[in-house]
Amino acid sequence: MRHAMIVLVAVCCFSVFTQCQTAEELVDKNIQAKGGRERIKAIHSLHMTGKLTGGGGFMATVTQDGMRPNLVRETFALQGMTGVQAYDGTVGWQIQPFGGHKDPELMGEDDVRDLLRDADFDGPLVDYREKGNTVEYLGHDVVDGDDALRLKVTLKNGDILYYYLDPDTYLEIRKEIQEFIRGSIRENVVDLGSYKPVAGVMYPFSIASGPKNRPDAAQTTTIEKIDVNVPLAKSEFELPASLKQGSSPKPDAEKH
């Protein structure tokens, strides 16, 4: 009986403690868990390589290059062809040879949303107020049977990210993404794991993502290497010459 009372008191104290936590405190703990603001801000560029596996057993080589403040370029290589998506700080562009489009083309406003999130070099939690984001703490939840702390992050463009933090490490173990597109909602789930330090900053080396309503369609990216503060040419991110004159991104509805 005495042992049961001790356990009950401990559980109650833990519940009260976690309820008293604020969104700001959890954001700070997450940033600190990743290595701290100073180390995060000390990284100015990164080069990431990995393998992506999906349904049917296919495997592709993927890379991501990023530079402050908001440049990103991602490649997807499969069967001798390489697709490219990039954001130059103003507009997004792509080359998609898999669909027969070998020439660079501008990305529509809806297609570029995922790329814009990747272009946020430090992620939406760091300096979130300055970025126009808002954060709310929604309490406890469960991820694959384990306890998690849930944050709601509303981005400046209105999209919503739900962050699930490990209550022990305060690192995110899952993200649910809600994108509001022409009156409909597109939902995706991203599971994160196998964190490793690079230059004192924690990065997930296992990333599984897919539509929320189709978990069987999830694809897993296994990061093989991350190099930071490497020299990168801005020209790699810039709009190709064929798109520079008189071009502007068209709404996705006009592309179909």
Describe this structure in words.
The protein is of the alpha+beta class. It is built from 5 helices and 13 strands. It has a 13-stranded antiparallel β-sheet, covered by helices on one side.
List the helices and strands and how they pair.
Layout: H1 2-20, H2 23-33, H3 37-41, E1 45-53, E2 59-67, E3 71-78, E4 81-87, E5 92-96, E6 101-106, H4 113-119, E7 134-143, E8 146-154, E9 160-165, E10 172-181, E11 184-198, E12 201-211, E13 219-228, H5 241-244
Antiparallel strand pairs: 1-2, 1-13, 2-3, 3-4, 4-5, 5-6, 7-8, 8-9, 9-10, 10-11, 11-12, 12-13
What keyword list fits this structure?
256 residues; outer membrane lipoprotein receptor (LolB), chain A; 13-stranded antiparallel sheet; 5 helices; 18% helix; disordered N terminus
Question: Given the helix and strand composition, which structural class is it?
Answer: alpha+beta
List segments where confidence is low: pLDDT < 50 over at least 5 consecutive residues. 1-19
Q: Could you tell me the radius of gyration in angstroms?
A: 20 Å
Q: What is the helical fraction, as a range of percent?
A: 10-25%
CATH class: Mainly Beta
The total tally of domains equals 1
Number of strands: 13
Strand coverage percent: 35-45%
Lateral strand order in the biggest sheet: 6-5-4-3-2-1-13-12-11-10-9-8-7
CATH architecture: Clam
Biggest beta-sheet profile? 13 strands, antiparallel
Ends: how far apart? Answer: 68 Å
Shape: globular
CATH topology: outer membrane lipoprotein receptor (LolB), chain A
Spell the H/E element sequence.
HHHEEEEEEHEEEEEEEH
Kindly report the average pLDDT value: 89
